[in-house]
Write a structure and sequence with these properties.
The chain is an alpha/beta fold. The protein folds into 2 domains: 4-193 and 336-421, 3-Layer(aba) Sandwich (Aminopeptidase), CATH 3.40.630.10; 195-237 and 272-334, 2-Layer Sandwich (Alpha-Beta Plaits), CATH 3.30.70. Helix content is 34%, strand content 22%. It is built from 11 helices and 16 strands. A 6-stranded mixed β-sheet has the order 1-2-6-3-7-15. The chain has a 4-stranded antiparallel β-sheet with strand order 10-11-9-12. It is globular. Pathway: Amino-acid biosynthesis; L-lysine biosynthesis via DAP pathway; LL-2,6-diaminopimelate from (S)-tetrahydrodipicolinate (succinylase route): step 3/3. Residues 191-323 form the Peptidase M20 dimerisation domain. Keywords: Cobalt, Coiled coil, Hydrolase, Metal-binding, Zinc. Its EC number is 3.5.1.18. Residues 1-28 form a coiled coil.
Length: 423
Amino acid sequence: MTNKQELKDRLIQEVQNNEDELIELCSQLIKIPSENPPGDSTEITTFIDQYLKNVGAETSWYESTDKMYNLVSTIGEDKGGKHLIYCGHSDVVPTGDHSKWDFSPTSGEIEDGWLLGRGASDMKAGLGGIIYTFGLLKKLNIDLPGKLSLAVVPDEETGGEFGVPWLLENEIIDGDGCLIPEPSSRYNPTIGQKGSYWFKLKVYGEPGHGSLSPLAGNNAITNMIDAINEIRKLWNLHIEVPDEVKPLIEKSKRYMREVEKDREPFQRVLDHVTVNIGKIQGGTKSNIIPESCEIEVDCRLPFGITQDDVTAFLHEKLDALEIDYEISRFGFRSNANYTSADDPVCKSIVDNITHVAEHEAYGVMQWASSDARHFRNHNIPVLQYGPAYLPSIHGYNEKVKVEDIVRCCKVYIAAVVDYLYEK
């Protein structure tokens, strides 16, 4: 019988003793461009594949669409034990205007205790952590009483379908629990997330000479203004949060008050539908009455309202305006979802954050969306925990503290022991 605590302490010390190797791996990942779009993951997948082969792991490539590669590797044996998945995405958002960066977006350098570059926080440091954890367990030949799978996916940042959902729908990966090293705070993994409802609305009018407006034609832009005013009323809906998730909502509000204190004014996003009119386009010239106008809208849905509820609301309000319109969906689509804090995969991470960091830890809600929703749709409990400097995510000068990378990796490797050795 393996003494779990002794094994955990040994593995944590191995991470500590070899932290330079961990940080070098994360640095190398940042130095490889993997922006999505365009979404070509060839170079970074090749690098990770070689790293895993160097420690003796077998790998499988799956090309879900042109130049988007999923990489899967598994260690351990099927001895009737559990199967844990560690899953991370290799793609990053575009770097934007390089003149606004203080360093190269593909720097990968260490400066004053910070690892620099696009993906440092979202999520190449976290990805490096789970790859290193997987490789170290393989290299040390740890006899696991179950299986650990590593899945590296290429298509998360656009909400695409060629990463996690593709692997799950094609039954390439399956398991009893999953960790995604998405950026989080130091002591608060995300165990739930709001739903997503992205849509395009196109309103049609009738063109005419601008000098006759508003008596002539039918102005699509002014009709769109009326439509936008109705869409924004989603925020004002009173939503009954189900009793089962109220404790999670309250803990998350506490987190916004006490941890990310700059988020305190935004606590209401946890139980309201947020509405962002993100893009608008319409008309031809100032002297032509516009015959069409289109907007793109990002709504995030709390517990207590579904995508179908939002669709019904939109049609009711827009039909009442008696305008000619079309709605089409795109991007992220999901209802609010969560994993119980009492699930073994959540407990294994949260308990080991407390153990490694010697600090209270608890799970919270995420007000955005991620690949976690796909695992939950396939009845696989999942949570997210990764190193991050949250203000830098998706912005210029992205970075992450080296100490956070090391701490998270210690949690990852200790959690494998707790999860797989727990009957």
